[in-house]
Amino acid sequence: MIFLLCFFVTVSFAMEPKEILVVTNSRMAGSVEIGQYYMKKRGIPENHLLKLGLSLKEKMSREEFDENLKKPVNAAIHRLLPGTRIACVVLIYGVPLKVAPTPPDWDALETIKTLKNELKERRNKKRKHDKNDETGLTEKELRNQIKRLSNGSEKASVDSELSLVLAGHYRLSGWIRNPYFIGFQGLHLPINKDKVLLVCRLDGPDKNTVYRMIDDTLAVEKTGLRGSAYFDARWKFPKKKDLRGYALYDASLHRAAKIVRKRMNVVLDDTPHLFPVNGCPDVALYCGWYSLAKYVDSFKWNRGSIGYHLASSECSTLRNPKSSVWCVNILKKGGVATIGPVSEPYIQGFPLPEIFFKYLSEGYMSLGEAYLVSLPFLSWRMVLVGDPLYQPFSPIPGFGGKTDHSSNSGH
Questions:
Q1: How many angstroms separate the first and last alpha carbons of the chain?
Q2: What is the DSSP letter of 155?
Q3: Which tens digit of pLDDT belongs to each residue from 154-185?
Q4: How far apart are CA 263 and CA 321, in angstroms?
Q5: 6, 217, 360, 362 — which has fewest CB within 10 A?
Q6: Other CB atoms closer than 10 Å to residue 145's CB: what's the count?
Q7: 140: which strand partners?
Q8: pTM for this one?
């Protein structure tokens, strides 16, 4: 459940380059070179580069994650202590994107096999109704049993799982509340802030895209991000205050639009229709929904632009240039940063738009910091692609980092 607090919150981070650890995949051509390029441009100390030999696939096993990524990252962080605090890990092009669940044991595999055979038999009989049989389970219950025994709720992004590299042992099933999330401040949570790292990646469909993202980010920091912000809601702003799920996030798009109007021109669509093809020129910021794994070519992305789409599969790949998912296409078309899930995160798993765009547009937080305070859950499925130090706006005098949230949601 997400609780959004009914008071003003002031947050300040000011993350520095010396607090970043850069992780590359030495088996991926160009990964180490991109990492070194980024570090030089940002002034990150040379000994903060970690070269690992990892899978060339986008998905890695839980065992490989633990042994070949998590352990070396943990060791590197402790090697730099006590003189250097690491607050952020940046994964570079070629580091795997997803962590597979823990494989089921033999007993579970046998049960899964039996349940799958039962489902197959039912389909072959072409039953018209979802009736109980001798197992006492409906088809939906059978599928849920298979998912549970297969450890399906352990699916995660590498980035989100690695954010808890300092946390020691924790449950892998499902999500864990993020102690940095604005909506959880004041609650007693199982993991403290000092055990959480910001993890993001500089990644994309090819090396040139990643180099371009780095260069554009640095260039726009000097000039400021220019253009319009586009928010694509589906409904009018609700009169009801106690909002949950989709209604909460749709209302959050409305609130984000209102907040960002203090910074730039805003276009808000509150109809069920998506923005039309070529209908969004001069894009600086974007957030909207819902076109599942089907990018709509509505946008002319300005240099330094940032956008994300609220749908379930939008970061299921970053390597396939032919994919129609949103993250790949936002980066291909010119964006420098995006957010998306590697698999079904449920709507509550997304950064809340009003929080993310508030702190980003006020100019006191970097991209990575705004993401961290707007992200409800860790050990889950979300990914931030972009330079965590990116500050596309200069601070707005008098804002002071205040935010007001007056609704709540749960599931």
A1: 6
A2: -
A3: 999 999 999 999 999 999 999 999 999 999 99
A4: 33
A5: 6
A6: 17
A7: none
A8: 0.89
14 Cβ neighbours under 8 A, 6+ residues apart: none
Q: How far apart are CA 396 and CA 250, in angstroms?
A: 26
**Which residue, 267, 282, 257, 269, is CA-closest to 361?**
257
17-101+155-198 and 206-375+391-409 have identical folds: yes
pLDDT at 31 over 90: yes
Structural domain boundaries of the chain? 17-101+155-198, 106-149, 206-375+391-409
Q: Residue type at 350? A: F
Burial status of residue 365 (CB atoms within 10 A of its CB: 0-12, 13-18, 19 or more): buried
Q: Is domain 17-101+155-198 in CATH 3.40.50, yes or no?
A: yes
User: 410: pLDDT confidence band, cut at 50, 70 and 90?
Assistant: very low
**Residue 243 token pair:** 């909002």
Domain boundaries 206-375+391-409, corresponding CATH code = 3.40.50.1460
Give the Cα-Cα-Cα angle 264, 202, 387 (nearest 5 degrees): 40
**What is the rounded (10 degree) CA torsion for 164, 168, 169, 173?**
0
Tokens of 178: 């993020």
